[in-house]
Structure formats: C-alpha cells, structure tokens
Amino acid sequence: MATKTFDKDTILDLTVNMVPLAIILFFVVAFAVVNPFGFESLASGLQYTLLIAPFVLLAVLTYLSGKAIAGSEKSGTVYPPGQATVPGVGPLHEEEEKAEAALEESADADAEETAE
Amino acid sequence: MEVNGQLALTVLMGVFLIAVAAWLARIEDWRSYTPLAGGGAVGGTKEQYVSEEKPSGLIRWLTTVDHKDIGMLYGVYSLIAFAVGGLMVVAMRIELADPSMTLLSNTFYNSLLTSHGITMLFLFGTPIIAAFSNYFIPLLIGADDMAFPRINAIAFWLLPPGALLIWAGFFPIPDIIPAQTAWTMYTPLSAGVGSGNQMNAGVDLMLLGLHLTGVSATMGAINFIATIFTERNEKVTWANLDIFSWTILTQSGLILFAFPLLGSAILMLLLDRNFGTAFFSVDGGAILWQHLFWFFGHPEVYILVLPPMGIVSLVLPRFAGRRLFGFKFVVYSTLAIGVLSFGVWAHHMFATGIDPRLRASFMAVSLAIAIPSAVKTFNWITTMWNGNIRLTTPMLFCIGFVSNFIIGGVTGVFLASIPIDLILHDTYYVVGHFHYIVMGAIAFAGFAGLYYWFPIYTGRMYQTTLGKWHFWLSMIGTNLTFFVMVLLGYGGMPRRYATYLPQFATMHQLATVGALILLVGQMIFVWNFVQSWLEGPKVEDGDPWDLGEDNLTTAEWTWFERKLQTAVTDGGEEEDAELATDGGETVTDADDE
C-alpha cells in the first residue's frame, strides 16, 4: 500500500521538504566532525536535540501530509485546487489536457503566421 | 462610606447588565437562531425553524454568528487598528526627522514604540487575516459556516476589550501611563524592576489585553482546524483543498502551540509584578523570559506571514492567466515552515551569551527554513513567467509582495548567520528587515485581498485609478523608508532610540519622507475604500475579474454569482432588494469605474 501511495510523482512533490531535511542532516554531521566548542553533555545534548527534533517532526509531517494528499488523489477525483465545487470545471487531468491543446493550437497559429 | 459607594456602583452595574441581557433576549429568539450561509438553507420546514433574516441595524452586528459578518467585523476592527498603529508611527517618524528631542518626550516615544508594535502585530496583523479566513474559508471549502459559529463570535468580541486594555495608558485615566517595554516586554524592565516607571498599572492592563487577544486567536484557530477537517464539501478532498485554506490550517496549528505559551508567560509576568513571585527575577530569569517569549514570538512571524502567502498564491495566478506553478510544492513547503518555525526561536537571542553550541543549532535550522520560503518565491515568479499578466490593483500588490518579500527574506538570511547577527543585532538593519516583511509583504497581501474580494463583500467596485495610486505610493514609501533603515543599520544606528547622533540625520529624514509618502497612500486607500463602498458602481456580474475566461474561477466567486442571481435573504442586506433577481440589467449609480 505504501509503495502505491508514494509513487514517483508524490516523491518528486516531497523533494521540496527533503532539502531542509538535508540541510539539517548536513549540520548534524558537520557539528560531529567539526566541534570547536568541545563536548559537554547538557549543552551538546541540547545542541543535537535542537537539530534532531525538527528533523523528525518535519519528516513525520511530510510523510503524513504526503499520505493524506496522495491517498485522496488515488481514492477520489482530483479537481484544480479551490475549484472542486465550481460548476463547469472538470477533473484536473481534463483541464490540463484542454490547456495543453489550447497551447498547441496557439503555437500552431503562431507558426503559420511566421510561415506566411 | 467609600465601601458603600463602591457597593452601590457594583449593584448598579449588575442591574444594568441584567437589563441589557433581558433586552437582548427580548429582541432575539436565541434558541431558534440558525445562521444562514453559503447562500442557501432558506425554506426550512416548520419543524426545523430557521430565522427568515438576521436582525437589522446595530443588533445584527452585535449578535451575528454568521462567518461572513464576523469576517467583516474583523476587517473593520483591524483597519481601525492599522490606522491607530500607523498614526503612532507617523508621530514617531516626525520626531525622528530631528536628532534631538523636539516634538515628543523620550518616554512618550517609548510608549508609542511599544504600542505601535503590539497594535500592528496583534490588533491589525492577526485580525486582518482572520477577516479573510472567516469570510472565505467556509465558502472555499463548501461549508455552511464555521464548525463553531458562536465560538467564532466570542473570539471576535474578545478583541475590542483587548485593544482598549492595550491602549489604556493613552486614555485620560489618572495614574495610568502607557507601557514602555517594547513589544518584546523583556524582563527585568517589564517586571517593573529598577528606578523606571514600568511598575505602573498601564503595563498590567497591556498584558491583560494581550492575553485576551491571545485567547481570541486560540479560539479562532481551534475553530479553523475543526472547520477545515470536518466541514469540507465531500468533493473537497485533501487533494482538492485550495492554497489559502492550507495556509490557514497551518497557521491555526502554529497558533494552537504558540499562543498558549505566550499566555502562560504573560500570566507569570503578571504574577511577578503583582503577587511577589520570582519567575523572572531570580538568576536566569531574564533569559527565561526571552526563551518563553521567542518560542511564541518566532512562530508568530509565520502565523502572520503564511496566510498572506496563501492570499498571494491564490490571487496572483488569477491575473497571470494560469494555475499556480508547483501547487504541491507550495503546500508542502507551507507545512515545512510550520514545523521548522518552532526550531529557530533563539536566533533572536544570539547576542545574549547563550551557549555557542545552542546558537549553532539555531543557526542551522534558521538557514534550513529559508528554503521553503524561497521555493514559494520561485513558484510565484514562475507562475508569472510568460503568463498573460493583467496589472490590476490586487495583482500589483501581489507583485509588490513578491518584490518586498525577496528583500525582506534575503536580509533575514544574513541575520541567521551568527557572526553577521552579532554585528547587526539591535540596529536599524533588523528594523528594516522585518518591516520589509510585515509592511512590504504582509500588509501588501492584505491590500491585495481587500481589493480582490472588494466586489464580494461590498457588492460594488472600487476606483481603479485611486487603487493604483495607493499601490505606487505604498511601494515607493515602503522601499524608501525601510531600505534606508537597512543602510542606517549598516552605519551602526541602534534601534529603539528617540534621539540619535547628527551623522544619521539625513538617512532618518529620508525614512521620515518615506513614512509620509506611505501616509498619503493610506489616506487615498481610506478615501477609495469608504467612498467606493458607499457610492461605487454596483457589481452585477458574478465574475468581475473575468476569471471564467481562463477557467480560474474559485468557489467563493461561484457563491457570489449565485448570491447575485438568487438574491435570497442571506445577510439581509439592503442592496439585495435592489438587485435584479434575474441577473439581468446592470444598474449603476456612479460613474467613477
């Protein structure tokens, strides 16, 4: 189930949150390697807690929100955001196809004009 | 004798309150009151009685539990607060045109400084966001109303007494003077320690007022979380939720965890001041206050900026003729900001001498939180790229938002770096940086929303030329005032002072000119807003921005169109009676649009 929910597109969407996670991870490693202020159990413990706690919380929230959004994409019709209840607005993939077709038409018209 | 007098006064007050309650009970059948919303729900059966319309006049506004009415109340309240806070700072900037103490005494300057900050953040910033969210979230998600309409009303009605308490020191009350603690209320100054006058009850009243606004915000947040989780139309799944609702949901989560902490800290401070406790007077007390305050204070920054980002993400694509680029990036980065905002608070405290290991961690997370904000900025720019851009007033304010947010954001990234912060801490650089965000970005997004939805909540159109004057004066004024502050900071001008060395005079005078340009811009806004509301041309088209042409109509405009066509008893406004029920002929009564 998890592999179905987190397909390639969803993981691509979630990369946006992986960047700050990577930055935090970088500093966890960096502070372990370069530590000019020495080790002291309370201060160093807090130092790492202050990095690891946001890391874990962000990872958990990213997972849960990704699951909720990707899950509802799989189980129901996806409309353009904020337009689900608007009459005349179809599902997102139809709207995107329409937009792409319109774009191609205008591109063709432009090409014809240029040729003329 | 004095006791008897007080007793009589108390009894009189009690009788008066009972009389008011009895009067309200007589004019309003409370048990039967069911709010109408979403333009529907009329024609209930006899068993299920529904009021045909709301009470008229002032009583409607005092008793309403309709989310749209409460949104309007929040809007009026916050704009009044914006005017008060704005006039306070105009007085301060005029004083700062001259290096020495001229117009205002130093203590009065300190009072204005304190009240300007608190007014703008708590009485304007948070409520203006609540104005939009109350009015539009239920419409956008297809809900009948908020989950708890009465709690919604209570949350609003806590705000006016909060404002009166916060401003109490300025009223002619004997022996009460305004607080001079700055909005951060650092101890030991705010605990009334030392030879200053901060033991005055004015500070206590301000703290109580602040506490009320915090309770109000928390009640509102719980309401929004419940509404967005449970009241969505069945078609509005998590995948279909609009961006403004996502930002309000995240903001509400932040409020839920941040504001109770502010409340606790305020109560501890009040106990220290009045009941002899020693939370903040023992060793480490001063740093304890800063930790408690900023654990609330930094998420507060994102509480204020996330929904404006949502407004821009919603409005900007409508005038770029296309959907928001990377919608889900914006959603996930909003959530990321929400979590990380709780891990950066001590970057406000780099100069306090806390352990360098802790500082390093706060720096790391502060740098990490810049990424989601930058992602959004690129999304907005990419949305506009090669788009069919229409430079309407709301769009201009959105573009102004992006522009100012970049300057405010980049100056903030530098401050996240410890060595740079140690140089620039407590200088005008910091003031310039955060004003680019609060005025240049947050207030700009507020104006974008006010103009964009003006036809919905007034039924009329504003005057476009005046709207553009408002934008350009605000844009020029903002950049002049706050860019000069960044330069003043580089020059070493410390913040929070009523007087300064003559070498800074030219820069300060430029900032004052910028502030006056801003003032003129806001006066034009007030004129345009009020006059257009009263006399502007009536909007007969449910799609005044022609969003339908690009297939970008969102749910609130569909609701508006339905309202114009059906003109049901919703809201019971007078205008409804004048509207053509068939949506036919256009009736305009002004020429200025």
TrEMBL record, chain A:
This protein's record includes keyword rRNA-binding: no
Domain of life of the source: Archaea
Region listing for Disordered, in residue ranges: 72-116
The keyword Nuclease is annotated on this UniProt entry: no
Alphabetic keyword roster: Membrane, Transmembrane, Transmembrane helix
Biased composition (Basic and acidic residues): 92-101
Transmembrane annotation, as ranges: 12-34, 46-64
Acidic residues composition bias: residue spans: 102-116
Name recorded for this polypeptide: Cox cluster protein
Organism listed in the record: Haloferax larsenii
Lineage start: Archaea, Methanobacteriati, Methanobacteriota, Stenosarchaea group, Halobacteria
